Each structure stands twice: as structure tokens, then as C-alpha cells.
Amino acid sequence: MAQEVLVETDGSVGIVTIDRPQALNALSLRVMEDVTAALGGFDLNPAIHAMVLAGSPRAFAAGADIADMKSISGAPAADKALAHHLSHWDAIGLLKKPVIAAVSGFALGGGCELAMACDMIVASETSFFGQPEVLIGVMAGAGGTQRLTKIVGKALSMEMHLTGRRLTAREALALGVVNRVVPIESYLSEAKKLAHQIAAQPPLAVQAAKASVRHALDSSLSEGLLFERQSFFRLFDTQDQKEGMKAFFEKRKPIWTGQ
Fold it and tell me: Does pLDDT of 181 surpass 70?
């Protein structure tokens, strides 16, 4: 079978590209296994400090692979298999290092959920975001009802999930779904540029800040403040903190070691 997930590095940035154009990058079980394995490998690689997850100019991912799902019943064994498939979206949210989704074209259903599972999104002007699962008799199952609601609020999330309404790239930017919208010819290079900006920062501080921001989405303010404070204190035991503050007073660029 042709390789459907491509993996490469650009300095300290790991790049994973879904390459299944004949199916608009539909997210089969095999594709999601390969995506999470590649990102997980970069997460464990000390030479990689940030990651980019991309699709093609026409489609980031048009959704989950319906061919994998159309024969699923409500039997316990089927439920277990489907839960395993959906767990790959959760795995991306648990990565320690930042992941930037480079989105162009369709980001629908599982593709929209995959982009939202990442930490940031750079989108081309041609992008569309949506959760149209209701149109085929189901609903979002990989975090769409939860992540989208936290970003855009109840009213719009309801409309998108109950009617299949899509957001344009500009709408997504205005609502805080994406970080920036750029011309189609530069969406991938802009995502890489952002990844390199992050990768140039002290790795432990970046990972701690990412974990604290994500914690804010799932906790009360008091719990989040405690988590942030503990993470802040722990960074004072790192060599990077000593180097960063020393370099500040010496008016030079710090040299980060990730220790």
C-alpha cells in the first residue's frame, strides 16, 4: 500500500503530512495510527522542539473514513474498536510539545476535530471548518462537541453540530478557532515559521506553558492557578532558567539546553 503519512524534519521542527489525496485525506484507522505514531516519536525526540501537522492544499482532512465506519454496529466489540480509533485524537492532545495544524481546504468532521486537537492552527484563505456528522446520521465523536463549544460558545456550536454549517477561514479567525489566515501558497511555510519561533524558545518552559494553558480548558480558575503556580516554581530548578536570566543581564542571546 502507498505511504499515506509522510514524516520529515526541518531543523528542530518535526513535520507530519497526511498524503491521501484520492480520499481528500479521510482519516482511516491506519492514517490516524501513523499520525499519532509519528507525532509521538517526535514528542520523545530531544532534538525536536515543535511539530507541524499538515494535509494538502485541497484538504487538511475531509473527515473520518466512512468506509471504516459504515458497517459498525452497536455491539460491544464494535464499540471497543471505534473507541480505539477515536482515542488517537485524544493522544494528540496529550503530547508535551506544541503541535501546529497547517490547514488548507476542507477540515470537516474528524478533520476539524484533528485540527482542534492541535495547539494552534494556521489556515489558508480556502479553509472551511465544520462538524457535519449529523448529515450522515451520527454526531461528532472525537471531541468536536466539546472543543468547538469551548472555543465558539454554545449557540454557534449547536448550529454547526445540528445543521452542518461550516465556518470560512475568516469566520474561524474572528471566532478564535485559528491563529492566522494566510494565502494558500504560504499556509505551510507560515505554520513552519511559527513552529520555528516556538522551537527557538527554552523547551521546558514551552512545554510547561502549553500544559498550563491546556489545563485551563478543563479546570476551575482556582485549580488552574494552582497548576500554573506549581509549574512556574518548578522552572526555577532548570538550567534554562538560570541561563535565561543570566543572559538577560549580560545583554546576550541565551543558549537553551532543555535542562
Answer: yes
Q: How many Å apart are CA 115 and CA 195, to the nearest integer? A: 15
Which grid coordinates belong to 156?
Answer: 454557534
Number of Cα atoms under 13 Å in the Cβ half of residue 47: 6
- pLDDT at position 82: 77
Q: Please, are residues 183 and 124 in contact by the beta-carbon 8 Å criterion?
A: yes
Q: Hey, what amino acid is at 165?
A: R
Chain mean pLDDT for the chain: 93
The question of whether 133 is a catalytic residue gets the answer yes
- Examine the residue annotation and report whether 258 is marked as an active-site residue of this protein: no
**pLDDT band at 73; cut points 50, 70, 90:** low
Residue 255 inside a domain? The answer is: no
- Residue 153's domain is classified under what CATH number? 3.90.226.10
Q: Which of 4, 113, 141, 144 is catalytic?
A: 113
Query: Considering its fold, how many domains does the chain have in total?
Result: 2
- How does strand 50-54 pair with strand 99-103? parallel
Q: Does the annotation mark 153 as catalytic?
A: no
Q: Is the pLDDT of residue 252 over 80?
A: yes
Cell readout for 116 is 482542534
Share of the chain above pLDDT 70, in %: 95
The answer to whether the beta carbons of residues 203 and 258 sit under 8 Å apart is yes
